[in-house]
Amino acid sequence: MTRQLTEQDATAAASGSAATRRFQEKATAANTSEERVSTLATEVIEAVHDVIRRHQVTYAEYDALKAWLIQVGQDGEWPLFLDVWIEHVVEEVANADRKGNKGTIEGPYYVPGAPRLPARATLPMRDDEPGTPLLFQGQVRSVAGQPLAGATVEIWHADDLGYYSQYAPGLPEWNLRGTVVCDAEGRFGIDTIRPAPYEIPKDGACGKLIAAAGWHAWRPAHIHVKVSAPGHQLLTAQLYFEGGEHVEDDIAQAVKPELVLRPGPAADGRGEQVTYDFVLDPE
Ligand code: MBD
Ligand code: FE
């Protein structure tokens, strides 16, 4: 008999191809003019030419690059590669003018349509879900300070071993994922567990680059959110934990000081709790 797979049997190629399939389900249409496409593509290509000249890149290195790019696609790791090394600058440009909450990158593991939960809820989790209990509570408001009734907080995060449901085997479909509908005062309170830091898979193309360059592969522990309310801009963010490993050297460069939580002991004596309010910009 073959052994039941567990989350620790996750492979780069399996999580990569799941992320690729998920991304392909998303409608994408940039409406970019021919002139702008030409400008952007020309400048990216010329930036590569410039690196080759400045560093006297050899044919062996060019072939290694070609083989690596092919492997990124074969492993389905384009979402992972782009979201780890590129997305933070796109987010910086997109959200530079926000007056409300700082956002940060979405990353490759968001799944739309997580179960809807009431304002005071427990995230879907296993009966014996490992990890420190965490009550994450707060309020969603406008930049004018108005509580936003009916706001929703979509939340997703890794478990105590650093794996995401739907991207590692053996986890319930919606484990540690939910869509919390806030109350009439825009408040929410979510019982979950503290996630572990996330390590980029070592057995795929991205891991190969990290090893070849002598980098580390870690993101700090984080909770992803998408916060929305009628008439307001969607906020995509992540929350980190003060003093957590790799908060200061996130490989994805997605930490901002405004997004760091400072949990204290839980009022009920079980684990930790933290209050964090979201402020949404008008549309
Ligand atoms: C993650 O969990 C993540 O949030 C990002 C941005 C990249 C890789 C894994
Ligand atoms: Fe993540």
From TrEMBL:
Give the enzyme's main class according to its UniProt record, as a single word: oxidoreductase
Cite the Intradiol ring-cleavage dioxygenases domain residue spans from the record: 136-164
**UniProt KW Iron keyword:** yes
- Renumbered to this chain, the Low complexity biased-composition regions fall at 10-20
- InterPro entries referenced in this protein's UniProt entry, alphabetically: 1_2-CTD_multi_dom, Catechol_dOase_N, Cchol_dOase_actb, Intradiol_dOase_C, Intradiol_dOase_core, Intradiol_RC_Dioxygenase
- Asked whether the UniProt record includes Metal-binding among its keywords, one would answer yes
What's its EC?
A: 1.13.11.1
Which cofactors is this protein said to need?
Fe(3+)
Molecular-function GO terms, alphabetical: catechol 1,2-dioxygenase activity
- By its UniProt entry, which PANTHER family does this protein fall under? DIOXYGENASE, PUTATIVE (AFU_ORTHOLOGUE AFUA_2G02910)-RELATED, INTRADIOL RING-CLEAVAGE DIOXYGENASES DOMAIN-CONTAINING PROTEIN-RELATED
Q: Which family does it belong to?
A: Belongs to the intradiol ring-cleavage dioxygenase family.
Q: What is this protein called?
A: Catechol 1,2-dioxygenase
- Which species is the source of this protein? Saccharopolyspora rosea
